[in-house]
Structure formats: C-alpha cells, structure tokens
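Sample entry (407 residues):
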Amino acid sequence: MMPLSRKIAVALVGVGVAVIGAWSLLARPRPTRPIDAVPSDAFVAIEVDVASLRKSGALASLFGNRDEQKLTQVCGFDPVDEMQDLVFTIPEGGDGDFGVAVQANINRDDLIRCADEVVKAHGGDPTPDTTSRGSYAIITPRRTSAESTRPPRSIAYHKGGPILVGPKRWLYSMIDALDAAGEGRDSPGEHLSLRTALAKDINPPPTFLVTGTVLIEPSVRSKLRTEMLAEVGGVDDPGTSMMLGVLGMSSGAIGLYERGDDVHAVLDLRCEEEAQCAQVEKLVAKVRGEWSKMPALREFGLGPVLDRLEVDHHGTTLQVRTAAATTDVLRWAKLFLASRPVVASPDGGVADVPTETLRVTVPEGVKPGQPFSVKIPGTTSGSAATGVRSLPATVPAPKPSASAVHP
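Predicted structure, serialized as tokens:
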C-alpha cells in the first residue's frame, strides 16, 4: 500500500502538470487577422473581404483584367489571387501615409522577390535594410522609385500572420497592435467594436464584403466647429445647426453585404449628444429629398438607392440603410476604377477615353479646360436608368511638345 506522503506527492505533481498544461494553452498566441493590425488611435480603417468578393464573383468582374498592372509578369504570380483579407489603416494627421495589412498565401521569399522586382520596375533601389519589431521582421528598400522623395515604405513579415506594408513608424504601431491582440494583452479596440455593432440587428448575420470605420478626435471636431462659427457668426441658421450636428459625430462605421440580387449598405453614426444626431437625421432627410428630384441621378441609376433609404435615430446613435442592385453597384465601381480625364488633340479631334469600351468625339469648338457632356447608350437590368446616361468630361490642356496627347 502506497504511503500517505507518497500519495500526496503524486497528487501535487498531477495538479502541477495540469496547471502547467492549462497555462501553456492560455498563453499560446491566438491567430491574428489583418483587422487586429489597426492601432487604437487610427483615424480610418477599411477592410475588404477579398475571399468573399472572389466567391461572389464580384472580384473577377471588377479586377478580372489587371494586365496593365503587370504584376504577374513582374512577380511570377498574381498577389491578388493569393489574398483572403485586406485592411487599409490611416493615422490621424498622417499626411497621406497609410498602412496595409493583408492575409495572403505568400511565403517570405516570394514576397521579398516580388517586392524587389516591383521596386526595380519603378526605378528604385531594392537594397534592403532589415530590422525587427516584436514578432515581425521589417524589410525596407533603399528607395522605392526613381521619383520618390518620401521615406520608402517597408514590408513587415511574420510567418502565418498578416503581411504589413507602410511607413516604418506606422508599421511599428500596427505590429504592436497585432502582438497585443495575439497575446491577449489588449481590448479589441473601437474600430473592431464598431464593425461588430454593425451586424447586431441584421438577421441572418451578414458577411460584409467591405467595411469602413472612422474615429474623429475631439480636438479635430472642436477646431472645425470654431472655424465654422467664426465664418458664419452664429447657430440660428438651420443649415448651420445641421452642420454642427455633423461635427458632433465622434465615430462612424459602414458595411456593404450581398443578399439576393442586391448589395445592402448599413451606416452607423455615433454622436456626442442626442440633439446632434437629430440634426444629422434632418440633414440626411434634406439631402435625400433634394437628390430625389434630380433627373441626372435617376438616369445614372441612383433612384432606387434614394427610394430605399431608411433612417433610424436612437439616442446618440443614427443608422442609415439602403440597397441597390448588384449589377448597378458593379457598374458604378467599374466607372470609378476606370475614371480618367478625357484627353483630346489640340485641334479638337477624337478624344480617347482610356477604357475598353468607350471612345468619344470632342464637340467642335470645345477648348482645353472646358467641360462637356458624354452621352453613353445602354443600361443594366434592374436599373432605373434610361437608355442614355450623361457623364461629365473635361478636355485638359495639351502638352506643348506634342501634336496629340495620350494618357
């Protein structure tokens, strides 16, 4: 029979092993996502669920022809095809700086080789400076392009984690946010909380294709308020009251998701005071009423978006919802991605619109810098557009050294 002291010792060892095992499971870093790379003080965060876009067919429709980017030829593979999730994050007062976090099936060697080739293709010097921050290795080229005067962007890599791209100082903040999230040392952050709140009243819960969040610092809103009041001199005007309501918004979140043949949009706005949200609600109703009467917007297909717009105001939260046919949303996205100035020869000849389908003639007598309208036949099913849509265009001044200007 085992002595009592030996039984106690065996029990203590068992308890110790169990405690150590539990601790190791709890201490194990959890997988991180690109959204975890958004620092708590970021101004804007935009997430694109690339995998869901690809599954829906929208990605192929929007980005199916990317030959002009030459990524496949330069890298030996198409990085977009390897992406699952993509996040853009912008710091407050970032002066044009932004960071990118992407979950992609790209190993370190392929990533660095692709980055080197892209830098060389732009006339830069890919000679790397390699440093580290937390769990990430940071690779910074000497110069990203021949014309660049800004500090080069860096790439941060951690096996299995999101790949990061951006200015080194902002990458440090993104890496710190990722490591804190992976080790459970920090709360999810307001950007992630705003994204989660978007879906709470939608059944069944949607998969957002695109999500955007913004946090507006009180100091920024206070400065804008002071400047506006100095210009208008008071708050008695209804328009001024509505704009002051807008300046009372502390944060916002928008999400786009597919349901059936439609793309739905839901926008959540948070105000400091209930009265400010009430003014924003008035502004939304005013804009909707005015835009609904504009034939050009209905011809463009925006009529259903305005007709289906709903506004709910509860306390310091304002929610706006609407929807549009997926075919129309894709058409607008293609127009946006393909939008470039219409360029004409100095003699007012043919203007070449750099898309695959459009070629227009500049009206006789139109001078460089003078706007004109382009009539585009055709429409899509489910759209409220008529047979002809009217888009603005401008003839830029020609280069003096050439007889014709091409984009």
